[in-house]
């Protein structure tokens, strides 16, 4: 018995550390109880021991028959039997439901891998869904209190609200359930405490609290109602952003005296300041993260633009060098095509008189004889006759004509791009030779 008492005390400590009432507040003798009550107490103790040893699947399977209606025997016309917990005393009923909700809380707190290993993937997901979606609240009302919302024990409602506060996705359903319960249940009245409030005799197929003194006017129920108001106004409503409504509810609540009302309002103000400060910090952190992301994006864009500019410059430089090389190669090719460069004279076309610089000695002598006295004087003096200015000009014009004919012939036989530029360069070279020849003739005439 001492060992069991230690386990039950430990169970109370674990449940209270999670914000839930202990699954068992005290041990009491089972003498004088009916067989159903003894069975419930025995099953409860077994489930508590399994829970304390963290054997959650066994604990759940042990306590589940106490809170589940018994289906009728096959082939009979009897209706479904209510859950055994309905026939239990108030204290036992609260303990059984508290243990059941505590086991569910521990199962949901398991990690995904651990929960699936212990219960199987499908069952563990079903339990988590029932808790997180608030379906467990409806299960308690339907199986334990014949579907009457206001008949649920206040301690059980506290456990349900705490369970949803910890695991529900939103607190909308939690707020709605608490409001329905607070509206349906009676407000404690300490001025009229019945003397037989502890003489409970629940009947079969009847709500555990209906038609019997429920203890709603006791100090214990008053404390439970204050705890419910605390959960509702300081936890659920703030989670839903209902700050002003929570303040108004506290101000007009008949359950709170002046001292508790002031404490609730002060706690609400402090909680709101902390929440707003946390939101400001979160907003500042979010702004800093966005600013850092923006700077990173701008830096990435700047680096990309620099890289693209360098690449474009490199491509343009390569194109310019390539075009310059191509232009130089084309210029050299055009000069070679026209037979004009810096060291050679234009080639002679077939049937055209040769240039002066390319005549044979015989033709040169014939030219000298045809020049008359100048040639003869040169012959008598045993010296080479110097051409006159007129002869040099005639020779230059003849060479220019030959060059023009060669250029025209090349244009007809080998047309290329940029012919005008090449012709301009060729003619420029020709005119340079004309100027040089004319200059030399002038000097010779002068001499």
TrEMBL record:
Q: Where is the composition biased (Polar residues)?
A: 26-40
Where along the chain is composition biased (Low complexity)?
353-370
Protein name per its UniProtKB record: Peroxin 26
Naturally occurring in which organism (per UniProt): Humicola insolens (Soft-rot fungus)
Disordered as annotated region, ranges = 19-40, 192-220, 323-386
Q: Taxonomically, what lineage is the organism?
A: Eukaryota, Fungi, Dikarya, Ascomycota, Pezizomycotina
